[in-house]
UniProtKB/TrEMBL annotation:
Lineage, top ranks: Bacteria, Pseudomonadati, Chlorobiota, Chlorobiia, Chlorobiales
GO cellular component, one term: cytosol
Enzyme class (EC, first level): oxidoreductase
PANTHER family: 3-ISOPROPYLMALATE DEHYDROGENASE (PTHR42979:SF1)
Residues binding NAD(+), per UniProt: 75-88, 276-288
Superkingdom of the source species: Bacteria
Main location class: cytoplasm
One GO biological process term: L-leucine biosynthetic process
Record protein name field: 3-isopropylmalate dehydrogenase
Pfam families per the UniProt record, alphabetical: Iso_dh
Site feature Important for catalysis, where: Y140, K187
Assembly and interaction partners: Homodimer.
Length: 351
């Protein structure tokens, strides 16, 4: 029995999480295990009811389960709140409180999508890399931070232990992938904090001499992901660079709506699509649920060590895409567009 806490959040969050939970229930039925799903409000949805973006009750529930499934937070309604009161601040707090220091964001191109989409086949087909994004440090957390009428400021700071643990995780993963190449992405030509990052990554690398390590500046990396994504196998990078580069990677795979992620720490794990709450399409049954459904697959790989369950989910996604199912974000011109619920049903039918 797996105890899952579901926090759909805002915007398209509830729509894509509903699809992912249908898939979760379908694999539970097929593989003969039980899941207990406990749903909690989070982000703006929680603020509107309780006056708090992250209640103690939701936080406790997230700490006392086997895995958390998150949709997304944020939206127009809450964007003028002070920074420390915004839904996004609650997400940062949740990540910090759960100790989720590593965000794994796989960029994998589905063959079925390449065959009929606007993706440039020869450039992207076969792309399959994993981004290890540091998630609880860097400029999103550094103090001091603030702004007044004359200045705005944030602080990018990394502690030795923060770089060591994410670098070690990335090298260990590379080892498991048959000594895959690791690219460490920074801005060491300008930022002292990046030179520090680079030094520590090289120190950790000494324990993994069989693995090739490449350093790359982040501006070049953004271009290289678009130009030749297949050169990457494992990327390790800081919080803000990983955030930006993984959205770029999303486009390589067809859409932000395709990319899942696992946010992991030593005690807890949370699974979430890389995209946000997409308020422009919220409530219209248009969102692509695949990123969130694939996040459930990552849950079975990372938290439950059930690769066969994850494999069924990936195969069902591939099957639905091969059958021509396309939400608006991944439809090539002239292709029929399906809804969130139609895509979900097509995937569930293939479990
Ligand atoms: N993890 C989270 O909860 C995140 C929350 N956000 C928040 O989400 C809100 C909107 O932010 P944006 O910058 O617009 O980023 P976004 O990722 O929500 O949307 C960017 C674009 O991609 C599209 N898109 C995203 N997910 C999609 C899906 N599953 N299917 C189809 N199209 C999809 C949207 O319609 C939009 O045009 C903001 O409040 C932002 O702070 C942003 C990123 C991550
Ligand atoms: C706090 C979030 C809005 C940051 C983000 O964009 C992400 O984690 O992808
Ligand atoms: Mg982001």
């Amino acid at each position: 029995m797996y105890k899952i806490v579901s926090i759909p959040g805002d915007g398209i969050g509830p729509e894509v999480v509903a699809g992912a939970l249908e898939v979760l229930n379908a694999v539970a039925k097929k593989h003969g295990f039980e899941v207990e799903i406990e749903e909690h409000l989070f982000g703006g949805a929680s603020y509107d009811v309780y006056g708090s973006m992250l209640t103690d009750e939701t936080l406790e529930a997230c700490k006392n389960c086997d895995a958390v499934l998150l949709g997304a937070v944020g939206g127009y309604k809450w964007e003028n709140l002070p920074h420390d009161k915004k839904p996004e601040a609650a997400l940062l707090k949740l990540r910090k409180e759960l100790g989720l220091f590593a965000n794994l964001r796989p960029a994998k191109v589905y063959d079925a999508l390449v065959a009929s989409s606007t993706l440039k086949t020869e450039v992207v087909q076969g792309t399959d890399f994993m981004v290890f994004r540091e998630l609880t440090g860097g400029i999103y957390f550094g103090q001091p931070r603030g702004y007044d009428e004359n200045r705005g400021w944030n602080t990018m700071v990394y502690e030795r232990y923060e770089v060591e643990r994410i670098a070690r995780l990335a090298f260990e993963y590379a080892q498991k992938r048959g000594n895959a190449k690791v690219t460490s992405i920074d801005k060491a030509n300008v930022l002292e904090v990046s030179q520090f990052w680079r030094n520590i990554v090289h120190e950790v690398h000494q324990d993994f001499p069989e693995i090739e390590l490449v350093d790359m500046y982040v501006d070049n990396a953004a271009m290289q992901v678009v130009r030749n994504p297949k050169q990457f196998e494992v990327i390790v990078t800081g919080n803000i660079f990983g955030d930006i580069l993984s959205d770029i990677s999303g486009m390589i795979t067809g859409s932000l709506g395709m990319l899942p992620s696992a946010s992991i720490g030593s005690e807890h794990a949370l699974y979430e699509p890389i995209h946000g709450s997409a308020p422009d399409i919220a409530g219209q049954n248009k969102a692509n649920p695949i990123a969130t459904i694939a996040s459930v697959a990552m849950m079975f790989e990372n938290s439950f060590n059930r690769p066969e369950v994850a494999g069924d989910i990936y195969a069902a996604i591939e099957g639905a895409l091969a059958a021509g199912l396309r939400t608006g974000d991944i439809a090539a011109p002239g292709e029929a567009i399906c809804s969130t619920t139609e895509m979900t049903a097509a995937i569930v039918a293939r479990i």
